[in-house]
Design brief:
- The chain is mainly β.
- It has helices spanning 80-83, 252-255, 294-303, and strands spanning 5-6, 26-33, 36-44, 50-57, 64-65, 86-95, 98-107, 110-118, 125-129, 135-140, 149-155, 164-169, 176-182, 193-196, 201-203, 206-217, 220-230, 238-242, 263-270, 275-282, 286-293, 305-306.
- Strands 14, 15, 16, 17, 18 and 22 form a six-stranded antiparallel sheet that branches.
- Strand 11 (149-155) and strand 12 (164-169) form a beta hairpin.
- The structure holds beta-D-mannopyranose.
Length: 309
């Protein structure tokens, strides 16, 4: 069964659409607010380091890129040392009149997560580096849970490689009560690494978490997307994990590129008609979109599921 229908005119954004020089356009956070879709996408520059650019759309398919990059590595202040190698893979959550942006901050010290805020997509305030190294893929839930901000995150250590955790915060700056909630599933499509993808989507059955899973092959790793459903009041409880992936690299622009065989999401937009626009980077090179019925994704977690390891 096709759970995610690709848009016929994919890819929707490539380096040719960007008015400054970049090598790629991929792994974008996307959010819809007051009828406008805002896309914050990652681009490799020609020195191999990444910056984040901004694009806007009225329909979620046709995006126009702003003249200048939106976030480049900080050159002064406490962030500069930790962003020196680039800023990557942004996720966007809207809460209390502000857009919260989490992104990977790369440096010789490893990869940490930066949190920045904007109200107007013109100016930006860097709030805090909210993890130490080695973390990636932090997504903030779009509402507080039991009075606290909540996030899914993906620390990495040799003893517990590339698993999904949850953490909470009273103020977005200090995070704690961390708990491991899901591990890669041995000999499965997501056996090597998993990581949160799009910020969780609220449904009446639970929080829908669209995540990526990685499988190692003789020809390198394959990045696919899957779904898990988390309890609404206690998202550390996973109700079910869809046993099958929902999207895998199949089109030429997903199979071949800067890194081949990659579909990687940082954003999904739930629509009022019960569908979801899912955005993903194809082969770390271009941006793509597809649609899914939210209820089909929830059903996969409930009816064709496994318990998390
Ligand atoms: C991950 C991240 C992503 C990237 C993926 C595939 O480790 O770096 O940004 O899309 O690898 O290259």
């Amino acid at each position: 069964m096709t759970l995610v229908s690709r848009y016929s005119k994919n890819p929707i954004l490539t380096k040719k659409d960007v008015p400054y020089e970049v090598a790629t356009v991929h792994n974008a956070g996307v959010i819809k607010h007051k009828g406008e879709y805002i896309m914050l996408f990652r681009s490799h520059k020609h020195n191999g380091r990444s910056i984040l650019g901004l694009a806007r759309s009225k329909d979620g398919y046709n995006f126009k890129v702003e003249e200048k990059p939106f976030i480049e590595p900080a050159t002064e202040g406490e962030f500069a040392e930790y962003e020196a190698f680039g800023v990557e893979d942004p996720r966007i959550t809207f809460m209390d009149g502000e857009y919260l942006i989490t992104y990977s901050a790369y440096s010789k010290h490893g990869v940490r997560i930066g949190l920045a805020k904007t109200k107007d997509w013109k100016s930006i305030e860097r709030v805090s580096l909210i993890t130490e190294a080695d973390y990636r893929n932090v997504v903030i839930f779009p509402e507080k849970i039991n009075g606290l901000y909540a996030r899914l995150d993906r620390p990495h250590s040799e003893i517990s490689p590339w698993s999904m955790w949850i953490s909470y915060s009273p103020d977005l700056r200090y995070w704690g009560d961390s708990k491991l909630i899901m591990k890669p599933e041995p000999y499965h499509w997501d056996e090597m690494k998993i990581g949160p993808g799009a910020p969780p989507v609220k449904t009446d059955k639970g929080w829908l978490n669209i995540y990526h899973g990685v499988f190692p092959t003789m020809d390198g790793s394959v990045y696919r997307l899957g779904v898990a459903l988390h309890d609404l009041n206690d998202p550390s409880k996973i109700i079910g994990v869809g046993d099958n992936w929902i999207l895998q690299p199949e089109e030429p622009y997903e199979i071949t590129g800067y890194v081949h065989n990659v579909v990687f999401t940082c954003g999904a937009v739930p629509e009022e008609d019960g569908t979801l626009k899912l955005y993903w980077g194809g082969a770390d090179t271009v941006m793509c979109v597809g649609t899914a019925n939210i209820s089909d994704l929830v059903d996969l977690c409930l009816n064709n599921s496994r318990k998390p390891k």
